[in-house]
Amino acid sequence: MKLYTRTGDKGKTSLIGGRVDKDHLRVEAYGTLDEVNSFVGQAMTLLDGEAFQDIYAELQKIQHELFDCGGDLAIVNGKLPYKVTAEMVTFLEERIDAYIKEAPPLEKFILPGGSKAAAAIHVARTVTRRAERCIVSLSKAEPINDIVLQYVNRLSDYFFAVARVINARLGVPDVEYERSAIVFREKGEQ
């Protein structure tokens, strides 16, 4: 098997249903998701021990789902069935809710960091936000699987929650942004 085809040497690439320039919004969107996937893989190498088996398994599941997101974004004509489903979004929401309960209460913005693994997850979170912006731009120009946008939006929240839990399990406190107002409140608080 050859890794190079020479078909992209003039700045074009193949999508499902056509060819586009390599700087096309679709390519930028799924390429940014590929970056996210790489950062997730890097973060996984920093998760040692039994304390993180659940998170490790979830991150591996998410890596597969990120490929699904990229595949859905690579469909030009929207005629193939999409892979990303509402159930994937629901799973992320359920895990976010569980991790919020596990982590210490949060009132203020925190600085990305703490442990090496949490810092790596924060990098994945910020690149996910960039991917989301790319997908929003694409959705304004061409039809997409709207659930991909929902999934990516929820994924960045998941990464935030996971980074906090990683720090909590390691006994590493989150560092509050020192000039932050109180921005997070429990439901029912004014």
Explain this structure to me?
With 190 residues, the chain is mainly α. The chain has a single domain, classed as Hypothetical Protein Ta1238, Chain: A (Up-down Bundle). Helices cover 57% and strands 4% of the residues. The chain contains 5 helices and 2 strands; from the N terminus they run ββααααα. A two-stranded antiparallel ribbon has the order 1-2. A hairpin with a 2-residue loop joins strand 1 and strand 2. Helix 2 runs antiparallel to helix 5 and helix 3 packs parallel to helix 5. This is Corrinoid adenosyltransferase. Homotrimer. Pathway: Cofactor biosynthesis; adenosylcobalamin biosynthesis; adenosylcobalamin from cob(II)yrinate a,c-diamide: step 2/7.
CATH architecture identity: Up-down Bundle
Helix content: 55-70%
What is the average per-residue confidence, as pLDDT, rounded to a whole number? 91
What's the CATH H-level superfamily name?
A: Cobalamin adenosyltransferase-like
CATH topology: Hypothetical Protein Ta1238, Chain: A
Task: Pick out the low-confidence regions.
Answer: none
Biggest sheet architecture: 2 strands, antiparallel
Write out the strand line-up for the largest beta sheet, numbering strands in chain order.
1-2
Order of helices and strands: EEHHHHH
Question: N-to-C terminal Cα separation, in Å?
Answer: 62 Å
Number of DSSP E strands: 2
Give the count of helical stretches: 5
Oligomeric form: single chain
Strand percentage lies at under 5%
EC number: 2.5.1.17
Keywords: ATP-binding, Cobalamin biosynthesis, Nucleotide-binding, Transferase
Domain Cobalamin adenosyltransferase-like: 3-165
GO molecular function, one term: ATP binding
